[in-house]
Amino acid sequence: MSLVMIGLEIHAQITVLESKLFCSCRGNYRDLRPNTNICETCCGLPGTLPIINKKAIQYSTMTSIALGCKVPDKIMFYRKNYFYPDLPKNFQITQYNVYGFSSIGAEGSFELDDSKKIRISRIQLEEDPGRINYLEGGMNVRNSALIDYNRAGVALIEIVTEPDFTNPKEVRLFLNKLSLTLEHLGVCNTLMEGSVRCDVNVSMKGGNKVEIKNINSFKEVEKAINYEITRQTSMYNRNIKIESETRHWDDKKKITYKSRSKEEEHDYRYFPEPDIPIIVLGDNFVSNLKVHMPELPSQRFDRFVSKYKLSEHISDILINDKKLADFFESTLKIYFSPVEIANFLITEFKSMIEDDSDSTDYLRNMKVKPEHIAELVKMIEGNKISRITAKDILVKIFESGLLPSEIVNNTNSFKIADEKILMDAVQSVFDTEKSAVEDAKTNHEAINFLLGKVMKFTNGRADPKIAMRLINNKLKKPNA
Question: Is 124's pLDDT higher than 90?
Answer without folding.
Answer: yes
